[in-house]
Amino acid sequence: MFCDTGKVRLHYEVSGEGHPLIMLHGNGEDISIFEKALPLLEKHFRVYRIDSRCHGESTDKAPLHYDLIADDIYGFIILNRLERPFVYGFSDGGIAALMLAYTHPETVGAIAVSGANTNPKALKFLYRFGYGKLARLYPDPKVRMMVSEPNITKEDLGRITVPALITAGERDMIKEEDTRLIASSIPNSELMILKGESHSSYIADSDKIAHILIDFFRL
Known about the structure:
Blueprint: E1 2-4, E2 9-15, E3 19-24, H1 38-41, E4 45-50, H2 66-79, E5 86-90, H3 92-103, E6 110-114, H4 125-137, H5 141-148, H6 154-158, E7 164-171, H7 176-185, E8 189-198, H8 208-216
Parallel strand pairs: 3-4, 3-5, 5-6, 6-7, 7-8
Antiparallel strand pairs: 1-2, 2-4
Helix pairs in contact: 2-3, 4-5
């Protein structure tokens, strides 16, 4: 299915019944990373998996910035008349979910975020060095975005009024101190550091994240 926001054409798939749950993937990925989590999630929610702009089957030729991804999801919510959906975002999708929650707090019911960062310096050194070198060698807007954005402040996070779950793997590519900063800056938040997990091991092609989201979004 497709949704034209007036700015981009977003590809998405919807399944299940219950309160709406929007799922946002990470950089260079598409909705397929949630395939193993979907059978569990769709028993509890009406699940909307969305390809971000410049990803999957969504509009490819478009400016790429985190705030634009967040704005696309806001437009999607309005056009589909979703009433305060839950929003889950992984990595880049998590950054977009945070931005959506502090720019349009009246729009979402709760958020869960995995492996998000407030700025590029929050990437551990080897990842920051590697992506920085890649951005210099290849003009890929996805990589350029990762090494130059976001710039989320504690004040921004403090404007998030809905319940929030912040997760990261014990072996995540994001510095744990930044994950803890995100959680501590959001007034109504929970923090979960998953032992033995990496940035994506409990999310991509895994049903572990489904159990976590079902427990949290019971609220």
